[in-house]
Design a protein that fits this description.
Layout: H1 5-31, H2 33-42, E1 82-88, E2 96-101, H3 102-118
Antiparallel strand pairs: 1-2
Length: 125
Amino acid sequence: MTAKLSDLVCEDMAALQLERLKWSVRHAYEDSPLYKEKLDEAGVGPEDIQTLEDVRKLPFTHKAELGKDYPFGWRAVPFEEIVRIHASSGTTGKKTVVYYTQQDIDDWAEMFARCYEMAGVTKGD
């Protein structure tokens, strides 16, 4: 019996998602003291992520926590890699700070271009 293409695509996508989940958890654990603390409190380390179902082991991060060690506490890359900083207080009055690398900016540009294209936006708009 041969596998259907859709099954292979799903398997490939799941493998890619797992690879990226593992990378993200390891990066957060090794490069962000606050995420390491949060993961340690939850009893989860990078080695505990073996399947996509293991995402359920990860603790939630709540907006109120983003002010901890303000303004740079959640940073997970060296300052030299940060190319843009966005801060917004929303309705709380205390700013939430987000840091972007060049790769983050490039990824966002690609994702938004795809979204606009799917919505029917063209270069002529």
